[in-house]
From TrEMBL:
Residues 247-329 form the DNA polymerase III delta subunit C-terminal domain. This is DNA polymerase III subunit delta'. Pfam families: DNA_pol3_delta2 (PF13177), DNApol3-delta_C (PF09115). GO terms for molecular function: DNA-directed DNA polymerase activity. It is an enzyme of class 2 (transferase).
Amino acid sequence: MAKTWEQLQETQPIVLKMFKNTILKKRLAHAYLFEGMKGAGKREASTILAKSVFCQSPVDGYIPCEDCLNCKRINSGNHPDIHVVEPDGLSIKKNQIHSLQEEFSKTGVESNKKLYMIVHADRMTVNAANSLLKFLEEPHPQTIAILMTEQSQRILPTILSRCQMISFKALSPDQMIEILTSNGVEPHMAPILAQLTNNLDEALEYSRNDWFVQAQKIVLKLYGVLKKNPLEAMVTLQEEWFFHFKEKEQVDHGLDLLLLIFKDLLYIKLGKQDQIVYLNEKIRLEQFALHSSSKQLSEQMTVILEAKRKLQANMNPQLLMEQLVLKLQEGSSFV
């Protein structure tokens, strides 16, 4: 999401400080490993570093100008001296690394500088990793390698030892909320999204998704009827839930949204109203919280977490939800 130096500064200030120091001191390493969870900004940071290296008029000597030909070509993904390798199917194969090596054996098209990025470096086959290792052991002058991974433990130790590792920290919920609202997400929606995902792009995609908006309404309705009687809750499952939450991943999202309701109720019981995420439902939730104990809510949350575990173990989603509704009603003082 962060496409410029200033945008990445908001989410990864430590990474940007390191970039600044090494660029100004002309001490860029020949190989970096960008490590961190999905959505932390590794790909964007790679592009920003590439622009800093190739920019024709860097601001203050290190910030990409974003206006020169090189910055524009890097942004559009067509700079001749920058190469990106991504998994071909499930893995990065030996021939992909060989093609990269051949490309780098040539003189730079426009300068002696070259940069290559390997996305999901942990998915290299053993042969590909060994080929890359030889490449890293004898780096070409003025060549920079950037490897990216969410699972650094799956990369060969011999490759790790030849890279400078840079860790990308996960965004805190508060950071997520701030960035989401600055990107036009409704203030009442941002706290929910910040709890569901740490991936900024994913959160923004959810915010624009009608399916997700409708999902929240159905989950809130299901909670509302849970306290009435088993029949009404089962009817809601049959008439609304099963039509909307069809895929396994969708059911998992639904369970996450349901779990957040119970967490909000528990926060209310504990006097932590400032931590609730269903802001538009605050008054209604405060009424619901009057009829539940902290112990009951904790037990109900445990039941939902168990349902999530069973879903991942491939239990039939329809049977799972029917059992969940009954168990939630057993643990409720409403019945």
